[in-house]
Write a structure and sequence with these properties.
10 helices, 197 residues, mainly alpha, 69% helix
Length: 197
């Protein structure tokens, strides 16, 4: 019988907190059970296995990150929106490293859970909406989304791994990178003839 008060949401939050502390790849069902003060078997009433838990952590993190980005970019456009979007992304990655990793890792997510989760869908809407402010349309929109994601994720991943050892602060480089992205988005090169959407 499941322990009173134990839910899939509580198990997911406990797993997410643990992921932030020790890293997503080090989370085990036994550690989550210990954190909640229950036997391992109690968890399987609420989540199927470790992969299911990781998928739930990814959806939770996508929701949280999207909410932060939406709040940061509300009422902003152009460079102001880009900077607010990027800073919210980076701040979430710093504050919740394990959860953030879950949003950037290929994980098999239950299709029924994924269909109900607003975070991933809202993230796409926010990103495309911000980029439309630069006058972009397909296929340039998709290319620009990929550029932003590569830049933001690459930067925060290298930063987290201690990859910026130069004496110049990473914050200065971050600001300059956003300046450069803004300039590029304002001067986006035309699609080549024959590019497919």
């Amino acid at each position: 019988m499941a322990r009173a008060g134990l839910t899939a949401e509580r198990v997911t939050i406990a797993g997410a907190e643990l992921a932030d502390e020790v890293g997503l790849d080090r989370v085990t069902m036994s550690q989550v059970a210990r954190r909640l003060g229950v036997k391992d078997a109690s968890l399987y009433t609420h989540v199927r296995n470790l992969e299911d838990l990781r998928g739930r952590i990814a959806l939770l993190a996508a929701d949280e990150k999207t909410i932060r980005i939406a709040e940061a970019t509300a009422g902003r456009a152009g460079k102001d929106a880009l900077v607010a979007f990027a800073n919210a992304w980076r701040e979430y990655a710093h504050t919740h490293p394990g959860r953030y990793t879950a949003t950037q890792t290929p994980i098999q997510i239950d299709p029924e859970l994924a269909a109900k989760a607003p975070g991933p869908r809202r993230a796409v809407e926010l990103t495309y909406g911000m980029l439309r402010g630069y006058g972009l349309a397909e296929p340039d929109l998709t290319d620009a989304v990929r550029l932003l994601r590569s830049t933001f994720h690459g930067f925060v991943a290298l930063e987290a791994a201690g990859g910026f050892a130069h004496k110049r602060s990473s914050q200065h480089s971050w600001v300059r990178a956003l300046d450069a992205l803004h300039t590029l988005l304002e001067n986006w090169p035309p699609s080549r003839e024959g590019d497919s959407p």
